[in-house]
Amino acid sequence: MKYKAFRDISLSRLGLGNMRLPSQEPGKPGSPIDYKASHEMMDRAYEQGINYYDTAYVYNNGDSERCVGEGMKKYPRGSFYLATKFNIGANPDYKAVFAEQLERLQTDYIDFYLIHCVMDGNAKQYIDSGAIEYFLDMKAKGKITYLGFSSHAGTDTLRMFADHHDWDFAQIQLNYFDWNYSSTKEEYEILAERNIPIMVMEPVRGGRLSSLTPEAEALLKARHPDWSISAWALRFVKSLPQVQVILSGMSSMEQMNDNLGTFADDDGLSEEDMALLMKACDLFHSQLQVPCTACRYCTDGCPAQINIPEFLKLYNSYKVDGRWALHGWKDIATEGTPMDCVGCGACTGHCPQNIDTPKIMSELAELLAQK
Asked: So where are the chain's domains?
């Protein structure tokens, strides 16, 4: 495992994201975390030198924090770093949330604490709430070591929030696809100009960049046959100097071992590699239609209880692979289906990617009705 200096400590380049931990019933929304399998992954990560463990108040309805706290309590507290987040939309009582998080994580301090999911619609609420001042006070008292924020906001909001005070770090969604086809490059530059270290989420875009179109994959495999497709995405992010820790939400030991191999060296991408990756990205983009990262922010308020991320995944498969990809729709674990969508728009208001989900559900409903 390679490390990078942060202030007076060293952080592993690879961090363990704990939003997609193994579940007791894989593929079923809301399935409880498999603590045994999750702790085995944490043990493997720790043994291989990963020292940054990221979770949040809202992940798995709070069970992610509990699982991480239980899994890491066996190790000396000073030998790893915990990162968690306050989400004002989940519970605006920041004092109660922070106390509960300390209890869940079985610790008396948080190493890296974040204002969670800053967006255009909630940035002012965070600023006006008093939460930032409270967490700065907790930092002064040693209950928080470093204070930062995670952002899904537009660039103007990001600039405003980044200038609010002297943040220790920030976390953004960063991957080569969004670098080319979203505002990610500008977001990176905004933080780099302010010398704010970047923790990266979604480097493989929720797993979407672990499997490309056959043409795109063939380009990459011809150059580096021993690299996985995911490794290309991770090495792209490693190439960016402002990046501190790269989070990967690993949910299997196979993913863990592949990522550990990628982070066994400091190599990013050469100029030739980078040019080839951008060519593969263009090929992939020509067929990819929906940039869903399966964050599941859309599902809680859905009155029809549709497993939206899985149906968006199905829609992407249809766009890439044709109508045959729709055959497996009845295997999706869900209460509602696209045919039950009422077009209320509750999902779109919570989507960091601004996906027009009701429109896609309507199209899918028509397609599925023909099968």
From this structure: 3-285, 308-369
